[in-house]
Amino acid sequence: MKTADIQKIAVIGAGDMGHGIAEIALLAGYKVSLRDIRSDIVEQGVKRLTESLEKLLKKEKISKEQYDRITKDLLYSTVDLEEAVKESDLVIEAAPEILDLKKEIFSDTDRLCPKETILATNTSTMSITEISLATKRPDKVLGLHFFNPVVLMKLVEVIKGDHTSEETMETTYNFCVRTGKIPVRVEKDIPGFIVNRVQAPSGALLGAIVDHGIAEPEEIDALFRKLGKPMGPFELNDFTGLDISFDARNYFAQAISPDLAPFKLMKAKVEAGEYGKKTGRGFYDWSKGRPEIDLSKATEKVDPKDILAVQINEATKLIEWGVATVEDIDKAIVNGTGNKKGPMEEAQQFDPEDLVSRLERLSREFNKKIFEPTGMIREGKYINGQD
């Protein structure tokens, strides 16, 4: 299938990610079937999608004609999986991060949709290859990892499973371009892909800093805010949901290294049912709206260069393994996180000997092997983007 052959999209899951993916496809002129397991979930997804379109209309970013065409002609919603996928050219699954659930959806979709249909998962962590084996078309299965909020975030990671064909990769890459996104190719199916994988060690480092009593979450968030970030890492975790981050860290702990397991404070919060914004309390109290971060509490006990160092180190692993190019890693981080520079561009500010000693110190201090410097770091091959 070629990109021009894609006319009808089915989005499976009408939650935060699903209705956003549906919206960007609709805005690009595609017909979209939005499906979920219950009518109230579907209705809520359609409502949120429509409200977003109304904001765009009010800001004159879309015309009344475009709004009417989307809501009256292009968008279809249903709870019937067969109805959603039977004429689809591309199916994008955006169900919860439960592997068995995704495999069931892919198995059923494979049976119900046309043989040439491409099947994509929006998973942020899970194996594309394992999901693809639930179908009889693993060559037509890949990852399309969008970022939240989908309408605003430009990045899409286009992830190749072990059996994904080059035609499938090219077709969906160009589809993403047509929806106004900035796609990057992920050439090997590894846990976390690019953005979440590169950021995983820094999350582990910050968690260890808290657990060791070096600094409190608010002190760290205040530091990040002073450095120009709109939101610190702990507030961001609260905003997106500690339960989601907890599950992702547990998956990483099993799939990559125990060093990436949830830290003690996060585990305690989740076990207490304090998931952040969605429950009113997490690392912060959200009962009265967004928490006030006291910027005067910004810690001097955390070196921002340590956080950069472990991200750079992880990025070099992806380069060594052939997961992505230097350019695509930096493009992914800039467009997926809002950072002004990617890790490999940031790496140019580090003296090679300092970066090695910094990583070795962090590995010893927190007893985490994932911080040990790679061969690329030890040999200084990251300088000037060498790979």
How many domain modules? Answer: 3
CATH superfamily placement of the largest domain? NAD(P)-binding Rossmann-like Domain
Category from helices, strands and their pairing: alpha/beta
Determine the fraction of residues in helical runs and give it as a percent range: 40-55%
Largest pleated sheet: 8 strands, mixed
Flag low-confidence runs.
Answer: none
| Strand element count | 8
Distance N to C terminus: 33 Å
Shape: globular
CATH class of the largest domain: Alpha Beta
* Element order: H for helix, E for strand: EHEHHEHEHEHEEHEHHHHHHHHHH
- Could you name the CATH topology of the largest domain? Rossmann fold
Spatial sequence of strands, sheet with the most strands: 3-2-1-4-5-6-7-8
Number of continuous helical runs: 17
Radius of gyration of CA atoms, rounded to a whole number: 21 Å
User: What is the level-2 CATH architecture name of the largest domain?
Assistant: 3-Layer(aba) Sandwich
Would you tell me the overall average pLDDT? 95
Q: What share of residues are in beta strands?
A: 5-15%
Report on the structure:
It is a single chain. With 387 residues, this protein is α/β, with parallel strands linked by helices. It folds into three domains: 3-186, 3-Layer(aba) Sandwich (Rossmann fold); 215-297, N-(1-d-carboxylethyl)-l-norvaline Dehydrogenase, domain 2; 304-385, N-(1-d-carboxylethyl)-l-norvaline Dehydrogenase, domain 2. It contains 17 helices and eight strands. Strands 3-2-1-4-5-6-7-8 form an eight-stranded mixed sheet, with helices on both faces. The protein is globular, with a radius of gyration of 21 Å. 47% of the residues are buried. The model has no long low-confidence stretch (mean pLDDT 95).
